[in-house]
Amino acid sequence: MINYLYQEKNWQSQLNDLISDPEELLALLKLTTHDLKSEQLLSQHAHQQFKLRVPRQFVAKMQVGNAYDPLFLQVFPHHLEMQDMEKQIQAGFSADPLGELEANTLPGMLHKYKSRILMTITGACAIHCRYCFRRHFPYQENLPKSRDWFAIEHYIRDHPEINEIILSGGDPLTVSNDKLAQWINRFEQLPQIKTLRIHSRVPVVIPQRIDDDLLRILATTRLKVILVVHSNHANELDIDFDVAMRKLCNINVTLFNQSVLLSEINDNFYILKALSYRLFDARVLPYYLHVLDKVQGASHFLITDATAQTIYQALLKELPGYLVPKLVRETSGELHKTPLNVF
Ligand SMILES: *Cc1c(COP(=O)(O)O)cnc(C)c1O
Questions:
Q1: Are β-strands 195-200 and 224-230 bridged in parallel, bridged antiparallel, or unpaired?
Q2: Most CB within 10 Å of its CB: which of 10, 12, 189, 287?
Q3: Which of 183, 205, 170 is nearest to 18 (CA)?
Q4: Which Gene3D superfamilies does this UniProt record tie to the protein (predicted)?
């Protein structure tokens, strides 16, 4: 643990002080080109396409000198991303694997599943995960402005089956508390909306984001609030995360986690079992275990369905039911996430 990387800063200053220079990251981890295999070397091309971005606090959880650290491998832009692009495309890796551009009903809004809409209220994230299925997503054209709310509100009223609004992104918790409060206030005006769900990785990478103002906003809304955090490995979770989750739990926010199955990072029964127990220590229940979305640049993270199913079977045998996430795939055009069969 390298604590000197960051002081106890508030979350805005942490967000303004992210590491975005790959050389700086390598230096902090005392990794030289000597420690990296050739395919692991920095790819400027990959970095230009989807910039390195990682909070110092997350880097502090990486093991110095370990080129195979599971947190490091999630954020470092290296050569495998750009390798065999023809082959990646042939194997079905695309720029928009979920067909989101088509499902984009209104600016900043996706309505794929009957009772819930997803809103991308910001394009910004606190961390750039190399496997991100939105790494090529044209956010700038697709953020709801205040004036777009009129149309979205209209759409929701025309679809009485919608009862839940999911804030996604980008990462919705990179947005200021004032902005969030403004959005929540709009949702509350619609009697049909019962639940607000926030999907965010920020509580994992900058737990101080769960500050008093945010807690006040979430404690006073009439909506039921669900937070789905995103963690792939128990090494990502620390005492600051526990404290943040305890505060949310105390104001009755329902806490879930989703993970992505990633080759070399968590494609292993022991790691996933440890993650489930670690999440439960923090009062978070595992919700989804996603197989990789086939996005260009992420093909080296892919594991076969057969391997995924084998790992999953072991989880079923070892864990209590409430600590087994649902193993799913997101398929464009389907009306729900698709469970992978495990016999
Ligand atoms: C995953 C997803 C949801 C939420 O699905 P749940 O099964 O309710 O977790 C909603 N909308 C979109 C577009 C999604 O991708």
A1: parallel
A2: 287
A3: 205
A4: Aldolase class I
Same domain, 258 and 287: yes
What's the pLDDT band for 8 if we cut at 50, 70, 90? low
User: Ligand 1 within 6 A of 337 CB?
Assistant: yes
* Same domain, yes or no: 145 and 276: yes
Ligand 1 atom, smallest distance to 98 CA:
15
> For residue 295, which of 271, 260, 259 has the smallest C-alpha distance?
260
Ligand 1 pocket, residue 331 CB under 6 Å: no
Q: How confident is the model at residue 99 (pLDDT cuts 50, 70, 90)?
A: confident
Residue 98 CA to ligand 1 centre (angstroms): 12
Instruction: Please compute the mean of the pLDDT values over residues 224-230 and round it to a whole number.
Output: 98
State the distance from the centre of ligand 1 to the C-alpha of 171, rounded, in angstroms: 15
Is residue 249 a known part of a binding site? no
Number of structural domains found in the chain = 2
Instruction: Answer whether 166 contacts ligand 1 (Cβ < 6 A).
Output: yes
Per the structure, the complete domain to which residue 140 belongs is given by 92-339
Q: Is 185 in the same domain as 265?
A: yes
